[in-house]
Amino acid sequence: MVTENMQVVYQIPESLASVVTHYCPGCTHGTIHRLIAEVLDELNAREKTIGVAPVGCAVFAYNYFNTDFAQAAHGRAPAMATGLKRVHPDRVVFAYQGDGDLAAIGTAEIIHAAARGENITVIFVNNAVYGMTGGQMAPTTLPCMSTTSSPRGRDVEIMGFPVRVSELRSQLSGASYIVRRSVHDPGNINKTKKAIRNAFNIQLNQAGFSLVEILSTCPTNWNMTATDALKFVKEHMIPYYPLGDYKVAESVKNLV
Length: 256
Description:
Layout: H1 29-42, E1 49-53, E2 68-71, H2 77-87, E3 92-98, H3 99-105, H4 107-116, E4 121-126, H5 156-159, H6 165-169, E5 175-182, H7 186-204, E6 209-215, H8 219-222, H9 226-240, E7 244-248
Parallel strand pairs: 1-2, 1-3, 3-4, 4-6, 5-6
Antiparallel strand pairs: 5-7
Helix pairs in contact: 1-7, 3-4
């Protein structure tokens, strides 16, 4: 019971559905969903937002948001988001993608959407592994990192080096805002929320393509506890994938 001496300190955002999650314990997809929903509420954008769900762990993302959603084929979320935005330029359109979806089968889609400067927002969740299909090596799997398809660790001489998505996309002239953040502790969660807000604000001001890469955990496929997985992000992922702003175009600096 709430009394007059009590104060509400948190409530579920209107943009976030109150449903039971399908994500594994310790997975930080839920945290990222909450941040997106909070930003949509704060920008009063819920009623005009269209999300694009990927193939991967977030395949059911449409169940968690009280916004319109479309389901894309594997890796094709940027193409679908492009079509939706061109048909409905007054809508806020965002794609939500994992590393296998965006950095492997969807490599061409994300490169050309950024090169064209499409006025869409991409939330890229990097957990360095294929989560939904059984923990195989992904384009972002770290050197020497063990997965179900690289049980002895990623051998870069045979398997190549991990792909640094933000660094690559920042070289494209059409991109306006490319940043990397993390959700492994409260301070970085707050910074991630600000980056997501910046990205949506850029879209609302018709200022071009934005991508927020977010380092995330996968305790199940990393064979770790939730706490150890958060430590793994800090001690192993961030050194290879440094947090920071990789491109903030002159045209959007007044919007971030």
